[in-house]
Design goal:
Layout: H1 2-23, E1 26-29, E2 36-39, E3 45-51, E4 53-54, E5 62-66, E6 69-73, E7 79-85, E8 87-88, E9 96-103, E10 106-113, E11 118-128, E12 136-143, E13 154-161, E14 167-173, E15 183-187, E16 194-198, E17 203-214, E18 218-223, E19 227-232, E20 237-243, H2 257-264, E21 277-284, E22 288-294, E23 297-298, E24 303-304, E25 314-322, E26 330-331, E27 337-345, E28 351-356, E29 358-364, E30 368-375, E31 378-385, E32 396-400, H3 408-415, H4 420-426, H5 429-440, H6 442-445, H7 455-467, E33 480-482, E34 487-488, E35 494-497, E36 504-508, E37 519-523, E38 533-542, E39 557-558, E40 566-575, E41 581-588, E42 593-594, E43 598-601, E44 606-609, E45 620-623, H8 632-636
Antiparallel strand pairs: 1-2, 2-3, 4-5, 5-6, 6-7, 8-9, 9-10, 10-11, 11-12, 12-13, 13-14, 15-16, 16-17, 17-18, 18-19, 19-20, 21-22, 21-31, 22-32, 23-24, 25-27, 26-27, 27-28, 29-30, 30-31, 33-44, 34-35, 35-45, 36-37, 38-40, 39-40, 40-41, 42-43, 43-44
Helix pairs in contact: 2-5
């Protein structure tokens, strides 16, 4: 028995030595044939020169090229992987290799084993696998059952597979899952919504969220209802839900890329208020169109539009797919017809009713567009003004630089210098849903409630506001404008560039614990009668004065009137005329420049006038004798 074990041991040792010896074979080029083969240490041909290119042996296999195609051979010179690939990686410790072929300038990736069997077919955009991982990640092409107008029939999505090529998670993710402690945050490729999966590919948090962020205790999420929610590591909800005020139901685009593109344009999906949209009759030439305005008509019900209490409702034009054929339809290559409806909504986004069943654009100008509305067998024209605060009281208005489109939606994009290709590409499937929610709820995403102050803090703020009266002043439309960053020369003169209406703010979301990342410009709506106003509010934050060396360099407002143990920043808030708080539109630490008639807030790009700006103030305005200071006493010196 001992003799048998000894012989077996010797044979095993010999085979290992042979394998090691073969791995030590050296690549050699034959001078006569210009082909590559392999020689041993005695410089004898072990594998005859027959390859166009060859790499050294590793674990008993070598990669070789024949007729510009790569394969793999064993130590006997036999092909274990036929030379059929444009390129091939070395085999990893799991005996797998990534291969790829280029077809029509597209590189398709796959995975094979040492016997040449395809573990992952060559239909992938990308492959990720490591020596330690038991999972192969593949970004592979998938045939869509119902491709959209701007979506190819084949798209690629990330999926998960085991080392034998069996599916762990079907292709569905926009990015490769990256696991931490057995969990990975993933984005659904078609909806753009996020969830959390385990290493088995199962969802522990369903993909119904706009944003998810991992914390030390679990996950913070923002769902499609704009509700913040907290989950533990097991995916169970913990704590209470936090619903954000002001959220509205978005314009539903489903999986239709064209609707998403249309909605992303500033005129489709734009909220048109009572002071911005009218029924009209039009006449004129290509350069000038005269419009006679009248109250807006609900064609479906044959009556004037009911704007509701306080005129808070709005009208939205929506591109919809229709099974019927209408004048002015948008027709695409698949034969689908789209028309434009006018829909009345409540302020919170609830649909009231359709006021025009179908229609199309007839005139574009620098000021407005004209929409030919149809409903209940009747026809009318609506004029829609681009400025959401337009107060159209005149009966007759002249529209400048008019054009008459032959194809309404394409012309709409061209008229506004939009890059149509860019728009269609921007709304990739993985971005569509998120972008739609951002556009409709950008005001909500930038929303921050007024902080709850204690009675003592409230009295303190009121006291300081009486001294610095700019904090009790109402600034109406025309008093607050956008500006470029102000600069001051050696003489103390400040020069800035003023922008004309409408007032717009670059919003960045203020969600607690959720980095949603929304940042977009939005026009500020001053109400149906333009009677909303903007107020500057002092917001106190407790500090330790003993640690402050130089108050002048702190970067926020410093109380040097009563020496309260607080610092202050400024909220720029929008109010109804009855002083009801609407929303916060900007925040800054201090006032950049203070003058007799002007305040400059560089941080949020605003200039505020003591009296309404005059047309002759544009486009450049120099402010002289301005002070730059963050002391409240300096503001109290102003006679505002």
């Amino acid at each position: 028995m001992k003799r048998i074990l000894t012989i077996a041991t010797m044979m095993l040792t010999a085979s290992v030595l042979v394998l090691a010896g073969n791995d030590d074979l050296k690549v050699q080029k034959d001078k006569a044939t210009k082909k590559f083969g392999y020689i041993n240490k005695a410089k004898e041909w072990v594998i005859e020169p027959q390859f166009d290119k060859a790499k050294k042996f590793d674990d008993g296999y070598a990669l070789v090229e024949v007729n510009e195609k790569w394969g793999a051979i064993n130590t006997l010179g036999e092909f274990t992987v036929q030379p059929i690939y444009d390129d091939i990686d070395g085999f990893n410790k799991n005996g797998l290799s990534e291969v790829w072929n280029k077809i029509d300038k597209v590189k398709y990736h796959g995975v094979i084993n040492t016997e040449g069997a395809e573990i992952i077919p060559l239909e992938c955009v990308n492959i990720h696998m490591t020596n330690k991982s038991r999972i192969i990640y593949a970004d592979r092409y998938v045939d869509l059952v119902e491709p959209n107008v701007y979506t190819q029939s084949r798209v690629h999505m990330w999926g998960m597979y085991n080392l034998e090529g069996a599916t762990v998670a079907e292709p569905q993710f926009a990015e490769r899952p990256s696991f931490s402690n057995g969990r990975a945050i993933v984005t659904d490729r078609e909806t753009g919504l996020m969830g959390v999966i385990n290493e088995s590919g199962s969802y522990v948090i369903e993909p119904y969220h706009l944003k998810i962020r991992q914390t030390t205790d679990g996950y913070n999420t923002l769902d499609v209802c704009l509700t913040q929610e907290t989950f533990n590591d097991a995916g169970s909800p913990v704590g209470s839900f936090v619903a954000l005020p002001g959220a509205v139901a978005p314009y539903y685009t489903g999986n239709d890329d064209l609707l998403a593109v249309a909605y992303g344009h500033r005129l489709i999906g734009m909220r048109m208020h009572r002071n911005t949209i009218r029924s009209c009759t039009s006449s004129g030439s290509s350069s000038l169109t005269k419009v006679s305005c009248a109250p807006l008509v609900d064609l479906v019900r044959n009556c004037y539009v009911d704007w509701g209490l306080n005129s808070c409702r709005f009208v939205r034009l929506e591109l919809v797919k229709t099974g019927e054929q209408h004048t002015g339809d948008i027709i695409y290559t698949d034969g689908s017809h789209y028309t434009i409806q006018a829909v009345l909504y409540e302020a919170n986004g609830e649909c009231v009713n359709i006021i025009s069943d179908w229609g199309y654009f007839t005139v574009f100008s620098n000021d407005a567009l004209i929409y030919r509305a149809h409903g209940n067998g009747k026809e009318s024209e609506y004029v829609l003004f681009y400025d959401i605060n337009a107060d159209i009281t005149e009966n007759s208005i002249a529209l400048r630089n008019c054009t008459y489109p032959s194809s309404n939606f394409i012309s709409l994009l061209e008229f506004n210098n939009a890059d149509y290709e860019m728009l269609t590409n921007w709304y990739k499937a993985k971005d569509r849903q998120r972008k739609v929610y951002e556009m409709e709820n950008v005001g909500v995403l930038s929303y921050s409630q007024l902080p709850a102050l204690s009675p003592k803090e409230r009295d303190m703020v009121n006291d300081l506001s009486r001294h610095a009266r700019i904090f009790g002043r109402k600034f109406y439309i025309g008093d607050v404008l956008n500006c470029s960053k102000a600069t001051c020369n050696e003489e103390g003169n400040v020069k800035i560039k003023i922008e004309k209406n409408p007032l717009h703010i670059k919003f960045v979301d203020k969600f607690d614990n959720v980095g949603y990342g929304t940042e977009i410009d939005e026009d500020i709506y001053f109400g149906g009668k333009n009677d909303r106003y903007i107020g500057l509010d002092l917001i106190p934050v407790k500090i330790d004065r003993s640690k402050i060396v130089n108050p002048a360099q702190i970067g926020y407002l410093w109380d040097d009137i009563h020496d309260y143990n607080y610092k202050f920043y400024i909220q720029v808030n929008l109010y109804e005329n009855d002083n009801t708080y609407v929303r916060t539109i900007a925040e800054c630490n201090t006032i950049s420049y203070i003058g007799e008639n002007y305040l400059v807030l560089n941080e949020c790009g605003l200039v505020i006038a003591r009296t309404q700006f005059r047309p002759q103030d544009f486009p450049n305005l120099e402010f002289k004798n301005l002070l730059s200071s963050n002391y409240l006493s300096k503001l109290a010196e102003l006679n505002w």
